[in-house]
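I hope you will forgive my troubling you with a question about protein structure. Here, with my thanks, is the record as I have it:
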Amino acid sequence: LDNKKIKLIPFYRRKISIPLGRMFKLCKFRQIIRIPPHRFGEDVVKYLERKIGEMFINKVILNYGLCVCVHSIEEIGDSITLPGDGGAHTEVTWNMVVFHPNIGEVLKGEISKCDSTGVSVTMTFFEDIFIPREYLPQPSKFLQNEQIWSWQYEVDDGFAELFLEPGSKVRFRVIDEVFKDIPTQVSDDSQENTNQKCYEIYGAMNDTGLGCISWWNAS
């Protein structure tokens, strides 16, 4: 799939293109989807595209990644009705574009937050990216008052400070990923799962060409 581009199913108002391969994968899914009676007169493919988009886009599927868009409907099976239900229950097979970068892949993003444990990075559509302090350019130190990181870059006459701060455009390498199966239902007296992340990426900036893009453009 490298170097190919696909058109998004128009679940959104405007079509855009996404390069397939590497951080974007094409995955096949199959599920029974109910078509309600008042939708029987509509174009079934368009309805299914819209329904699948509502169900899956911007959601994480365990061990697959973040669903970005519906690529195509591959097969629509026979429909059945159930007692007491006038809807048509139809087995649908479709292809979905998911965000799931490879370990070792280099990505671009923007720093959203810095603290003493490391740097958080966002890619706009995906925000759960973290660079631990030990994987920042070394030697680095955290400036508590400014809430930014400073790389003590060695030069001929000493050291120069290069900063990692919110809003900086950065390049990082994916070193690990964590999927968690988090229950969607949480009891009223427990908020244990509300702050957990079902898919998180860990990265590194401690290599040549990584870190703030402006550092290397300037050089």
Remarks:
- Residues 105-184+194-215 form a domain with the OB fold (Dihydrolipoamide Acetyltransferase, E2P) fold (CATH 2.40.50.140).
- Confidence is low (pLDDT under 50) at residues 1-17.
